[in-house]
C-alpha cells in the first residue's frame, strides 16, 4: 500500500501545483521556460503513474475487502466510464458545446472515472486509489471554476461537430478499452 500512496502523492502532487501553488508554478515556468517545465512535469507524472500501477498491483494481490459491490455496479460503472471517455477528447475541442457547458471536461471525466471504479470495487486499495482521484477532481474542478468563473456557465454556442467527433472517438476508445484492453492490461474484464 505504501507504493500506491507514494505514486498517488507524486502523480496527484504534480497535478495539484496549479491548484495550490499557481503563482509558484508561473514563476517556475518563467524561470526555466515552458518546454523544460513541461518535460519535468511529464517525467514526474510518468514516474508517479508507474509507481501507482506497481503499488496497486501489489495491493491487489492481497485484497482487503471493505464491502461487496452490488451486481449492478459494473453496469453503472460502464455507463459512467463511457461518459468519462467522451469528456476526455471533448476537453481538447475548442468549438464544442460540451466544453462550453462543462468548462473542465477532463477534470469531470477523471471524477466520473474514479466514481465508477469506486462503485465497482470494494477493496481498501481501490478506495485509496479511486478515492484519491475523486477527491483531487472535486477540488480541482471547484478551484478551476473559482479561477475562471465563466467556465462551465457558457451557453451551448459551440458547433455540433465539436460534440459529435469527441463523442464518437470517446465511445470507440471506451469500447476498445472496456472489452479488450482492460482485461489485457489490468487483468479484470468488466463485462464478463
Automatic annotation (TrEMBL):
Main localisation: membrane
Annotated keywords: Membrane, Transmembrane, Transmembrane helix
Pfam families assigned to the protein according to its UniProt record, in alphabetical order: NnrU
Topology of this chain in the membrane: Multi-pass membrane protein
Domain NnrU: start-end pairs: 3-190
Alphabetized InterPro entries for the sequence: NnrU_dom
Transmembrane regions listed in the UniProt entry: 40-59, 71-90, 110-143, 164-186
An example Gene Ontology CC term for this record: membrane
Recorded superkingdom: Bacteria
Subcellular location: Membrane
Protein name in UniProt: NnrU family protein
Originating organism: Glaciimonas soli
Lineage: Bacteria, Pseudomonadati, Pseudomonadota, Betaproteobacteria, Burkholderiales
Amino acid at each position: 500500500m505504501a507504493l500506491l500512496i507514494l505514486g498517488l502523492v507524486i502523480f496527484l502532487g504534480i497535478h495539484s501545483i496549479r491548484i495550490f501553488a499557481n503563482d509558484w508554478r508561473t514563476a517556475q515556468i518563467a524561470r526555466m521556460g515552458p518546454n523544460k517545465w513541461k518535460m519535468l512535469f511529464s517525467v514526474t507524472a510518468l514516474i508517479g503513474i508507474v509507481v501507482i500501477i506497481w503499488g496497486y498491483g501489489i495491493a491487489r494481490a492481497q485484497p482487503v475487502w471493505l464491502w461487496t459491490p452490488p451486481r449492478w455496479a459494473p453496469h453503472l460503472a460502464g455507463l459512467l466510464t463511457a461518459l468519462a471517455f467522451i469528456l476526455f477528447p471533448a476537453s481538447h475541442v475548442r468549438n464544442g458545446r460540451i466544453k462550453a457547458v462543462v468548462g473542465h471536461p477532463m477534470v469531470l471525466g477523471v471524477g466520473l472515472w474514479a466514481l465508477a471504479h469506486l462503485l465497482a470495487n470494494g477493496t481498501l486499495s481501490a478506495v485509496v486509489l479511486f478515492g484519491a482521484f475523486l477527491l483531487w477532481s472535486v477540488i480541482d474542478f471547484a478551484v478551476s471554476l473559482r479561477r475562471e468563473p465563466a467556465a462551465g456557465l457558457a451557453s451551448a454556442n459551440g458547433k455540433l461537430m465539436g460534440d459529435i467527433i469527441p463523442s464518437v472517438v470517446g465511445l470507440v476508445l471506451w469500447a476498445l478499452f472496456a472489452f479488450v484492453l482492460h482485461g489485457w492490461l489490468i487483468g479484470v474484464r468488466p463485462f464478463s
